[in-house]
Amino acid sequence: MEHVRPVPSHPGQRDPYGHNPAGSQRREDEPQESELDIRQILATVWRGKWIIAVSILFVGVMGVLTATQQPPIYQASAKVMFDIPRANVEAGEAVVNTALGRNGLQNQIEVLRSASLIKRVIEDLRLDQNPVFNPSLRPPRETWRNRVTLPPEVEDIMLAWGLITPPGPPPDPEVVAERMERVIIENVLNGLRLRPVNDSDVIEIGYVSGNPRLSAQIVNAIADQYIVDQLEGKLETFRSGTSWLTERVAELQQRVEAAEASVLAAQARVAEEAGSSLDALNQQLATLTGALAATRGEVTQIQARYARLRDALQGGAEMGTISELRDSPIIANLRRRESTLKTEDDQLARAFPPTHPSREQNATEMASVRREMADEARLILESVRLDLETAQEREAQLARDVRRVEEQVLRLSTNSVEIRNLEREAQASRILYENLLSRLQETNAQRDLQTADARILTPAEPPLYPINSAKNRTLMTSLVVGAALGIGIVFLLDKLNSTFRSPQMVEQMTGQPVLATIPRAGSRMKRAEVVNLLRKKPTSALAESIRNLRTSILFSNVDNPPKVVMFSSSAPREGKSTTSMLVALTSRQMGKSAIIVDCDLRMPALLKVLEVSKGENEKPGLLSVINESAAIEDAIYVEPDTGLHVLMTRPAERAAKINAADVLASARFRALIEELRRRYDIVILDTPPTLVVTDARIVSALADAVVFAVRWDGTPRAAVKEGLRELTSVGARITGVVMTLVNEQRAASYAYDGYRYYKGLYRDYYES
């Protein structure tokens, strides 16, 4: 059962339950719902399942028909690996660089698709004799001009009018042959499939045709011709490289010989002029320079020795600590004699006093030994000094000789600029000659060892079965396209729909709260049968919806419940009259005095709803009360089963020509409504559609509450907006909208939780 909320009396007011009925008026601090509603999308798809199924079936059948019309296609494949590693026979860089590089595989693919290679394949397999590739061998295409012979007069007229073109001049046979050759090459390339294998230097060569054996032959021929093309290209490169190297080596050999001869001649001329050769002087200078360096080192060492001895003797150092003195035999003997005397003195000192003659003699001998050691040390120092002077004189002489030879070399070098230039030129020519000679030898050694940079890993074999993936792919693609087409049609129809299918949509687009939703009682049920259903089944879903509507109307103003309620709609046949009658009956069943007034003076509907007998139609009605020809009590029709009071327009009254708008705008009609307000608990006013006539706008001024009926999935949105705008323009007190004739089964498929969940979950509360 649908939950009914009391509706506020003015926009923006929140009802007692804390809800805001106006869907389009949302507080800023309230969280916004996600724009992407997965449930709504799935519900839309499920609702259009039959459209999607038909689309899938249609497109699938077309796909099956298309796939079955395809001839069998066979694909043969071979794999070729590039950049095969080889043993390095000779050191150095090869003449032909075989590295693939970053774009190597793509370059090789372009080579495999080259016209020259395909042309050799065509010649090898004689593909130019196959009608599959050579269009000139196919039977001529039948045209109407081949089948029909026109009279000359008719042909001339058609030529004059431009309906047919005259035959052109015969083409040049060479041009025709050239074009046909290009066509055959293109036809062969159309079936070629080249695909590099990921993370490898392997290319898969495939060919697609209607003949499995022919596909394998073409693949193998392309692979073989590619290997042959590589070998021929490399051999041609080697031949041209060898020829060029041979010519350059011979030329450089002559240049080297001439340059060396020029150097020798210049050297001989300069040596004759200088009396000695530059090489001899350079050798002499090198010898003298080496001797000078050695002498200077010797001088440095002797100076260090002399300074060390001199400083040690002047400082009174122990002679045993100086290596030069320690190595002297004389000083060594004297030191041993001194040591012996010290030992004897120590022994005498224990036995005799210092003044004893033995100790004095011992001291005299020790002093003599020490004087001899000092004299010997001075002699050694003098010897070192003499050695130092000799070395310094030899160093000075060598320095003078080096300067003399350097002056000679400088004078000779100044005159040998031409020789140095000739030597550099000869050296450069010699280096280039040796490099090219070595390269020529390497090239000759590699020429006989050349192999292709690719090899066939897997040769092609005739396929046993056609590639049915094309048919499966076509079928799967057609199913996917059909599903996508069906879903697109469903969403397109949903977007093109201009009606209301949910209360949320009404609230969002109109700003008015939805008071209730009235289900459709039956597809073939008349209005009188709907009224009888309400009486017979007071616990049905229809009765509960009407009670919800009545409760919403009364709670729209809790402090001052409305007594005069007007029902209107945008267009006819929206269930307005039936709904207003059901609300009045419900009020009567709940023990309230109620009357319904048929304000549609042009096309009254309550007569048909209640199925009033012809005898009753002769009695006075609403117009009789307004023109004061009958009393209210005489004009009111009392429904026999429920006791509901109805004030309707009788057919006899409509015989006279009247202006309905003037009648409803009159003071008498206003006084009538006020009188009914005093007599009854609730007065229901059934008015004509708003967009058809102006009657509803006039009557709305007398109503405490205006209920606007909108037919579910029937009333255009623009019509509802315009109808509400018409009422709003005259200040009508619009309480809300009621959705009528709701198809609950279809509404359950839309994203409306009230019908999709609650109506199905609590259906046991209703009487079926």
List the helices and strands and how they pair.
Layout: H1 38-47, H2 49-68, E1 74-82, H3 104-112, H4 115-125, H5 144-147, H6 152-161, H7 173-190, E2 192-196, E3 202-209, H8 212-274, H9 278-314, H10 323-326, H11 329-351, H12 357-414, H13 417-447, E4 454-458, H14 469-496, H15 503-510, E5 514-519, H16 527-536, H17 541-554, E6 564-569, H18 576-589, E7 594-598, H19 606-610, H20 614-617, H21 622-626, H22 632-635, E8 637-638, E9 645-647, H23 660-664, H24 667-679, E10 682-686, H25 695-699, E11 705-711, H26 717-729, E12 734-742, H27 744-747, H28 753-761
Parallel strand pairs: 5-12, 6-10, 6-11, 7-9, 7-10, 11-12
Antiparallel strand pairs: 1-3, 1-4, 2-3, 8-9
Helix pairs in contact: 2-14, 4-7, 4-8, 8-13, 9-12, 11-12, 16-18, 17-18
Mean pLDDT: 76
Can you count the beta strands? 12
CATH topology (level 3) name of the domain at 511-745: Rossmann fold
Strand content: 5-15%
Sheet of most strands: 8 strands, mixed
Name the CATH superfamily assignment of the domain at 511-745.
P-loop containing nucleotide triphosphate hydrolases
Global outline:
elongated
Quickly give the CATH architecture of the domain at 511-745: 3-Layer(aba) Sandwich
**H/I helix tally:** 28
Percent helix among the residues? 55-70%
Strand order of the largest sheet: 5-12-11-6-10-7-9-8
Uncertain segments are: 1-34, 85-99, 752-757
End-to-end Cα distance: 13 Å
Structural class computed from helices and strand pairing: alpha/beta
Give me the Rg, rounded. Answer: 63 Å
> What's the CATH C level of the domain at 511-745?
Alpha Beta
